[in-house]
Amino acid sequence: MSTKNWPLWEVFVRSKNGLEHRHCGSLHAADEEMALENARDVYTRRSEGVSIWVVESKHITASNPENNGEMFEPAQDKVYRHPTFYDLPDEVKHM
Amino acid sequence: MSEEQVKNLEEQFEARIARDEKIEPKDWMPEKYRKTHIRQMSQHAHSEIVGMLPEGNWITRAPSLRRKVALLAKVQDEAGHGLYLYSATETLGISREEMYEQLHTGKAKYSSIFNYPTITWADMGAIGWLVDGAAIINQVPLCNTSYGPYARAMIRVCKEESFHQRQGYEIMIKLANGTPEQKEMAQDALNRWWWPSLMMLGPTDAESIHTAQSMKWKLKRKSNDDLRQQFIDQTVPQAELIGLTIPDPDLKWNEERQSYDFGEIDWDEFWQVVKGHGPMNKERMKARVNAWENGAWVRDAAMAHAEKKQDRKEKKAV
Amino acid sequence: MKNENLYKYILGIADNSLILGQRLGELTGHGPSLETDIACTNISLDLFGQVRSYYQYAAKIAGDNRTEDDIAMLRKEREYVNVLLVEQPNTNFAYTIARQFLFDVYHFLFLTQLEKSKDLTLSAIATKSLKEVSYHQRFSTDWLKRLGDGTAESKEKMQEAIDGLWTYTDELFHQTEADKAMVSEGVGVDVTKLKEAYYEKVEAVLKEATLTVPESKWFQKGGKQGIHTEHLGYLLSDLQYMQRTYPNMEW
Fold it and tell me: What NCBIfam families does the entry give (chain A) (predicted)?
């Protein structure tokens, strides 16, 4: 019987140069080389990627949804951060 | 948390789902939601990997190189889909090993259809055409289910599976247009797989538990009977097109309902297979358990090696 | 056949990929983890892809009506010219990895040379395959190290597999008559010249994997002349089952 299980890794794939890496799923692997190879074999079978990042899931620090109020709501009324807040004369078409 | 607080949270939770909001892993969720999802998602994952076995049975014997690579790729996809689904389920706080344990001890179920044997090449056609056809009907609505990781996994699965049914139907077309012997092989496979495929869509609504709750959580969008009718209505013309006969003497187009009427399903057989007494239940489980147990030393070695490597790296750093 | 030597030469390359691909195909659904299962199937698919390119080319050279499937599935046992190494069974995962590694190192060196072939079709297949095989080699090398330098149990199993398969390595560097003819035309690869680099590479990896390089100098041969181990017959009865049972049909 296995004593220790392979840890979980998160996989991020860049689908083509110019685009960001996007999270596409997770997998199990014993070490980083294996994680990278497994990610290649599992998540790019249909030419989905040109670059892969893997990171062991335990190294990700995530915000807690319970704190979503204090974390994200204060940004909601800062409308002056968006261009639509500012009035422009109709004659100025692009700015 | 007081009972009232929990009730309050539950109401908010249900309201979020009703508004079509997605639930994500770290969100608060009722225990029942978590448990139901672990059950359904792991069952789905198990079905993918047990489902590799009946088709894997023909990889070495595929009749042409073209068929062989298509079948290999399809069975491999099933491993991938199992993997996506296990990973999505892990976000609910259960490990893949625990899920395997449940599968291997018979605590968790998987789709009963995989407990039938694949005895001729035509079974590869019938499985792709009928079993994947029925699976797609079940799965497409899940792309929109309420639990985010499940919905995302399903989007990936559905995208990749689009070739599976075609792969199977193409095998059937070739056989149906082939020699009398080939046509007979195709008809025989249809005869054997038709009823189990109908059963695959689940017990009749009258006997189906969990349905109301599952509808609310968008784990299910239509009832089993509606899905079954949809499957029959779409499949019958496909059979006719290639000159095969659906093995149901009661099958008849109902002009009024604009649907096919069909014969009685043998639910005794269904429950027998579900309860572990299908033709291949024992062999399927044995194959899974063997793969897992024979692989233990390999998985252990990889971990031991990773630790050694890490140690060496740390020593170097000192 | 006008180009009989070329035809035979192509089969000598392709049969290795066919038989190894078939062996790997047996494992789908039975691997030690889902991830490794998927990886091994990828290798199998790469190999079958190569096989199809080679056989399609061979069929064209033969110039009659034969197809890639006729070549793959309708020859007699003595007409398969793969090396003995690739037909060895999946005794356990250590054997699968050892077989893969011992073949990959050769395959990579071979394709690197085949890429320079005067035959443009072979050269093009080699270029494409080389990318795939570079990855195979990386995969099997990494696993060899993991199992060699893993637990005591895995080390023992890995060593046993290497010891067991070592006897089939020398055959990789034997030249057939078709080989010699093709080398002289600048089409084929002189495999005798790959031997040194092969053992150098293999021994270096074995050492890194904390394994012992086998000392035995007794080697098996015969695959290239169609004299196989008893394992091949069973593999072929699966591979050929449909074509033999239902002759002259399309699938």
Answer: PA_CoA_Oxy2
Residue B150 φ then ψ, to 5°? -70, -45
Contact yes or no for B174 and C238 at CB 8 A? no
**What does the radius of gyration of chain B's CA atoms come to, in whole angstroms?**
22
Concatenate the DSSP letters of all residues of A32-92 into one string: HHHHHHHHHHHH-TTS--SEEEEEEGGG-----GGGHHHHHGGGTT-GGGSGGGS---TT-
Handedness of CA C81, C84, C89, C93 (dihedral sign): negative
DSSP label of A6: P
On whether any CB of chain B is under 8 Å from the CB of A22, the answer is: no
pTM: 0.95
CB atoms closer than 10 angstroms to residue B209: 8
Which of B178, B295, B302 lies at the smallest CB-CB distance from C250?
A: B178
Structure tokens at C87: 């037909």
Domain ranges of chain C: 4-245
- Environment class of residue B301 by beta-carbon count within 10 Å: exposed (0-12), middle (13-18) or buried (19+)? buried
pLDDT tens digit sequence for C62-84 = 999 999 999 999 999 999 999 99
Interface B-C, measured as beta-carbon pairs within 8 A, has a size of: 140
Record: contact B291-C31, CB cut-off 8 A: yes
Residues of B in contact with A34 (CB under 8 A): 302, 306
User: CA–CA separation, C39 vs A38, rounded Å?
Assistant: 7
Give the number of other CB atoms < 10 A from CB of residue B59. 27
ipTM over 0.95: yes
- Say which DSSP state B141 is in: G
Instruction: Report the Cα C158 to chain-centroid distance in Å.
Output: 20
Q: Which two tokens stand for residue B273?
A: 């297979």
pLDDT of C153 above 90: yes
Is the pLDDT score of C22 beyond 80? yes
Residues 6+ apart with CB under 8 A from B280: B54, B114, B115, B116, B117
List A residues 32-91 in contact with C (Cβ-Cβ < 8 A).
Answer: 33-34, 37-38, 40-42, 45
Instruction: For domain A8-92, give the fold.
Output: Ubiquitin-like (UB roll) (3.10.20)
Q: Is the pLDDT of residue A3 over 80?
A: no
User: Is the CB of A42 less than 8 angstroms away from the CB of B83?
Assistant: yes
| Chain A interface mutation, best of C27, C28, C33, C143, highest count of A Cβ atoms under 10 Å | C33
Is the domain spanning C4-245 CATH 3.40.50.300? The answer is: no
Ranges in chain B, pLDDT < 70 = 209-210
* pLDDT per position as a tens digit, C182-222: 999 999 999 999 999 999 999 999 999 999 999 998 999 99
